């Protein structure tokens, strides 16, 4: 472990800006998924996940403002990559939208946690806080497990969908670390493949937890 | 059957169901408006208003569940009228979306407050709580006043838009009181025209507050 680098002002700016952009876009995508959903039950789960993402966005935006940074300027460099990710992973229905939150959000959260492991405690705590569940995610595991148990065909379709999401989430992560050197630098010298390996392991454990085959 | 049952168990069911439906649909509409908005600033104001509406929905849904009522059954009778209202009042841009929240939400809030004036204190307090601002509406008056001051043409367009919204909000209210006798009964014997007159007066005061001509 190298001695902790003095807090670099550009790092929080880049990382908070990226995360704020991820969260605000997640709000929009989930809210749109909720809007397309006919069943009140699924609509409300997705809307709750959307408002949870917005609350996380608000915390990050407030930190950026406190740091004297224009939050929208900090977000802008990442918007295209994140929009493109959502464009490639548009759910066909409410169950696919729920799997997307479960799979992709967890992978991205794992990545951000890895990214801040070597930063100063304050950055770490802001990022951990911004990834904290707003209480709207509880129901997710439950609904996915119930769906997988009662409908083998659906479980198999969702399993394939999850596999696609993993690929897309990892390439999004790769693109962002390549394009944003400030963010890429956070991962330090560690072999990216090793880190991705750990993240895939955790993903597979989560898939088993809801009885979806990977 | 408890002897301590509230005066009329069907009233909260109807009123909370109506309000829950209004709030969940407001979430969807504002989130969709946010999604269509290119500017981060306006997007975030609309998204905040959307999450505020969702929090109000959640409170009403929880009250319905506590009362042993299926919230979605209680909401269903009002969905078509509310969806039709939004279909007739789709904002062309972010400013129109903000005016819509300012005008129509305030009118509907006034109506619900009138509706519960003669009910039991508990119903009254649940409804007042469900209409309380989540803190996301503060910025609204400010933005509208700023827009009206700097752009007379825009102010005039928004004034016309507001006038249309008043008409639509009042006909929505009329349709709902006619179709849902449980809700209509809440207004008692008072002449509806007198009540609508009071509501229009309050609306006009709000328009003056943001320098928009009615």
Automatic annotation (TrEMBL), chains A, B:
Pfam families: MiaE_2 (PF13794)
Positions of the Ferritin-like domain: 15-178
Domain of life: Bacteria
Protein name (database record): Ferritin-like domain-containing protein
């Amino acid at each position: 472990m190298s001695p902790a680098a003095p807090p670099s002002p550009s790092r929080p700016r880049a990382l908070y800006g990226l995360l704020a952009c991820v969260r605000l876009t997640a709000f929009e995508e989930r809210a749109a998924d909720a809007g397309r959903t006919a069943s009140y039950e699924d609509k409300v789960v997705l809307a709750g996940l959307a408002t949870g993402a917005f609350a996380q966005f608000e915390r990050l935006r407030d930190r950026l403002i406190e740091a004297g940074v224009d939050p929208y300027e900090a977000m802008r460099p990442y918007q295209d990559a994140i929009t493109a990710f959502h464009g490639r992973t548009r759910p066909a229905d409410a169950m696919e939208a729920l799997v997307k939150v479960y799979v992709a959000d967890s992978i991205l959260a794992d990545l951000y946690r890895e990214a801040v492991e070597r930063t100063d405690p304050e950055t770490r705590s802001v990022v951990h806080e911004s990834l904290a569940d707003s209480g709207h995610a509880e129901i997710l595991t439950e609904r996915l497990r119930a769906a997988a148990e009662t409908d083998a065909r659906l479980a198999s379709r969702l399993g394939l969908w999850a596999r696609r999401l993993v690929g897309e989430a990892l390439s999004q992560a790769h693109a962002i670390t390549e394009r944003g050197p400030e963010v890429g630098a956070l991962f330090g010298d560690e072999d990216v493949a090793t880190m991705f390996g750990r993240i895939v392991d955790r993903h597979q454990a989560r898939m088993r937890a809801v009885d979806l085959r990977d």
